Amino acid sequence: MTDLTTLLGGDIAQFHFMRPLWLLALIPFVLFYRALVQQDDLAAQWQPVMSKNMVEHLTLNQHRARIVSPNRLFLVFAVLATLIMAGPTWQQQASPFFEDNSELVIALDVSESMNSTDIQPSRLERAKQKINQLVEMRGDAKTGLVVYGGSAHVAMPVTKDRALTRYFLDVLDGSLLPDNESKPASVLKPTLQLLSRSKAPSTVLILTDKTSAEAIENFATEFEQQQHQVIVWAIGENPQSGGNSTEGLSDTQLASLSQLANAGHGKMIRFTHDASDVESVYQGIKNNLFAVSDTALPWLDSGYWLLFLLLPVQLMWFRKGWTLQW
């Protein structure tokens, strides 16, 4: 179920006003509104010089109040205009001067188990397809590529060339490595070497279907003091999604992959047949950078949306005879 935070974007818990002093303008507006109401109350004006009974008999429709009147719409207009000027906000926007210096190091498992066909044509081929989608979504962001099985090797240094990434992905398979057994702990050394020159919090993205206790322990030790994060992309059919339960990833495998991601203070993303997992990985990469650099990001002024409510109210003053009804 979509919550309010997802619907509006950003974090509604961070709601505040960018220019809160404008809210003080509500005080004179309310006082002016009260003066207008008192001016229209003819019965109250005549009571000091007439008896109450006589005023009631001489006053026509004294108890009939219009729901829509210039007085009331003026108050609505004043409140909306003040809120717009105060600048309500709950999310931040990327500055046009903000340079993304973060890096993404992709570690692709090419061991024997990645040739499983529980997702067609194979786990490895679908992983490549997902990586290409992610790289296209990130544009010219910096990306490096590590391939691993029994050992890990840098297949492509960090680059902004998306075409180069696609080229290297096309030729990667398990036959390139002497050992086809998956040893995710071997990923640490080459990935940290690539990230050693990173100027911003970056991400290690591991696409695999299994891990080990040794890898979890090693990642927890190495990333304890790091600003970088580890995202584990679990490549394999999820039995709960209606796939092949005999060949898909088991609950034990998913739990261990989640532990690996937690060791690098990141998260695990499950494979999906649509692009929702690609979007989740992309958001996870971006949020890690912004979470550390959020002081450099300006707040998005969301008060402009209230103009769509303000304009219909203002149009009432173009009605013939409207200004005579105060």
Write the layout of secondary structure elements.
Elements: H1 4-8, E1 16-17, H2 26-40, H3 42-46, H4 52-58, H5 70-86, E2 88-89, E3 103-109, H6 123-138, E4 142-148, E5 152-159, H7 162-171, H8 188-195, E6 203-208, H9 213-222, E7 229-234, H10 251-263, E8 267-270, H11 276-293, H12 307-315
Parallel strand pairs: 3-4, 3-6, 6-7, 7-8
Antiparallel strand pairs: 1-2, 4-5
Organism: Motilimonas pumila
Protein name: VWA domain-containing protein
Pfam families: VWA_2
Q: How many β strands by DSSP?
A: 8
Q: Main sheet, how many strands, which sense, barrel?
A: 6 strands, mixed
Q: Estimate nothing, just give the exact number of structural domains.
A: 2
Provide a count of the helices. 12
Give the overall shape, derived from the CA principal axes.
Answer: elongated
* Shape-level CATH architecture of the largest domain: 3-Layer(aba) Sandwich
Radius of gyration: 31 Å
Strand content: 5-15%
CATH class of the largest domain: Alpha Beta
Organism: Motilimonas pumila
Protein name: VWA domain-containing protein
Domain VWFA: 103-285
Transmembrane segments: 20-37, 73-90
Describe this structure in words.
The protein is α/β, with parallel strands linked by helices and 326 residues long. 41% of the residues lie in helices and 13% in strands. The strands form 2 sheets. Strands 5-4-3-6-7-8 form a 6-stranded mixed beta sheet, sandwiched between helices. A hairpin with a 3-residue loop joins strand 4 and strand 5. It starts with a helix and ends in an 11-residue tail after the last helix. The relative contact order is 0.14. Residues 1-7 have low confidence and may be disordered. Residues 103-285 form the VWFA domain. This is VWA domain-containing protein.
